[in-house]
Amino acid sequence: MHDPSTRIPSPPISDDEQSIDASRCANGVDVEISSDTVVSLTARTTAETAGSPARFETSSAASSSSTTVSSPPSELPSATSSTTTVSSPPSEPSKPRSRQRVDFAKLQSIFAAESATDNTDPTPSPSLSSLWYILTTALLLAFHKEKLIADLWTYLAVNVARASGTNDDDHHHHHLLLTTARHIREASLKASTLVGFPRAINALLTLHRAIQSSHPALSTVLQRDSSLRSSPWLSPADKFNRGMALFQTIYDRHTPRVVSTMSSCSGGDLTHFAIQCIYGELLAENAIIGDLETGMLEFVCCLADGVAPQAKGHFFGSVNLGATRGQLRGAVLMAQELARQVRVPCAWDGGAAEEHDEGDEEDMDEWKFLQRVM
């Protein structure tokens, strides 16, 4: 990567360029500036040519140009020539931009502490231990910080090594790394329909390069994975049915109203696309990330993106899928802390209030549903 602080030194100035040969001319002044370009200024004012335009001639090693500029006649005839050398000060090297860092340990601690308030079992379940970084993956994409996925992977890989107490050659350690990588990859893929497909592509490429660099053997295994969604055992009807089942679980008794609204505003296409493609093809696939994790992923993406109506729907959808009060509160607090660290506003707590008009208090009312867990 190019370091902007690195300057390419200019070639040394030759003796010919440093010496100035001042030539005399009748009633004229020659000024030569010694640097990369030599500028010769000749002003000739005589009685015969009084009022004639002064001529500025610029010459350089590559080209020469002549520009005529009108100026009043000089009243001070001169019989001498003077020469002035002006040296430009060396430019200051630009400072490299500091790399943005995220305290992932703090995010993990926040989510674990809040989630623990709902669970008397001191040993977290595997889904709970992975849920925080699945949601963090989605939040990074929603905050447009998908390049930080590489740092998330590095943090998790180090933690896996510490937790297993083994090296990369251990089978258990390898399995944990593989599971973690697949979780991040699947979370990026599922978040694509909520945060934007290009951001998901960038996140997946960033993760792939990070794993390839740190764990090349693991990268080889991941590249051999086959698609979960191109299975010949699932027909289009099967995918529609599983999509509709997840959709109905999320929206519960509101399902008919939501379907009717989507159909009426899109000629029916939005309903078909949402249930058949987004839910049936993508979100309802639960081999790696289950329905609860998927529902909360949808919620934090809408939360971070500042779309209150959709965030509200997926907030209650997460409840319908089994999310606890502590998990939802932990997700909101984790999103708030990550937003602070990457310096982006939080729409739900008035973090961008200075950018709002006076009438935007109604927008804050849209987020009142969060008070149920805060």
UniProtKB/TrEMBL annotation:
Renumbered residue ranges of the record's region Disordered: 1-22, 44-100
Family matches, as InterPro entries: AhpD-like (IPR029032), PTS1_Protein (IPR052999)
Listed transmembrane segments: none
Compositionally biased residues, Low complexity: 57-89
This protein's name: Uncharacterized protein
Species: Cladophialophora carrionii CBS 160.54
